[in-house]
Amino acid sequence: MKTVGIIAEYNPFHNGHLYQMLEARKRAEADYVVVVMSGDFVQRGDPALLDKWVRARMALDAGADLVLELPVRSACASAEYFAQTGVSMLSSLGAVDAISFGYESIALQGGVDLGSLIQTDLRPLQEAAAFFSREETKEYREQLKKRLGSGLTYAKARMDAYLNMSGNEVPAELLSSPNNILAIEYLKALIRLNSSMEVIPVPRTGAGYHDMKLPGHSAAEHPASASADDPASALASTSAVLPASASAIRAAIARQEDVSAHMPGTALRLMTEEIRARRALVPSDLDLPLHDALLRNADHLEEYLDVSPDLANRIRAQLGEYTGFESFAARLKTRQVTLTRIKRSLMHILLDLRQGDGEAQYARVLGFRRSAGELLHQISERSSIPLITKLPQDPPQALREDLFAARLWEMVVCHKTGQPVRNEYQRQIVIV
Q: Does residue 166 fall inside a structural domain?
């Protein structure tokens, strides 16, 4: 028996995700796919478009065998902690043999064998991961400080400093692309954990991570709709359409455009039902609760995760100009600090995520396939962390944070729909 793990957000699940899942299973020759998925808030500092239970169902319908929740403290965090927690969880299960992730190809793809391409691409990512897994040297800190002083963001400054010290000629822009930053962090986490999990990288095709436009057709003039329930058939039916990014799909949904060519049919139906029921959130839905949280906690903002004294002072100074979540985040942005990092910091205040609280030491099950009995049995025998299928009445701190985040997400939905808040203790594990 062989199992491959994937760490994801699926916000929402689209054809690019389906391609990666199918490719990971095939290349790993895996019997099972385990997904560690963000809950109701995601890494870019936004609420998830759809709740975690719906997104877990999307993943299971697409072929995943087990979906676990990535705790909110790590889901709404930098790439380092997002990757570190996800890899640690997969490793702790004791039943995952390989880990798969997407990345931006560094080599030219035209006419190159996929296996050779991946090996060419993987080497510079592994070299960068090895460098960053070691303790920082004085020379590196000086190089980083110099580049931050010139106005580069932290992500670009660290990569530029690394390339300068290593002599590697890979473009800094490519290594510091969002997918490759995550790829490096996955590899770094594997090194630090001394993990024996096999690495299954899958090169991304189609739109970039932040591309806000839906890509066009690669071949067929009128591609079929992704309506097939079988995952492979669903992907084949849209093979003429280049995969869109989740950002582009969310933007298209906001414009009320048709995204049917970019999502598997079952995922599309689930999303359409939720949108019609008004159970879908966008950042502006948090305008009022965030304002309230900032006003209530203005005197002790420094206690929250990733809120530096400088940022806390800027929040207090600008609070009188608050008109909404995204516009306020834009006011706080500087040359060195990205908008995403600002949004994450604001989200930590809203979600009451404080400095120094403990990391999660459990794996909460969101859903599984009935056919995954052997996998679940193996995890129950080998896992070094508890597999939570029923919420305890006195949960640990990290799980309390997850429950608070879920309740907040549901309260905002309640305000939109007028429907009662769904109690997390009464939610049923998704079984397919």
A: no
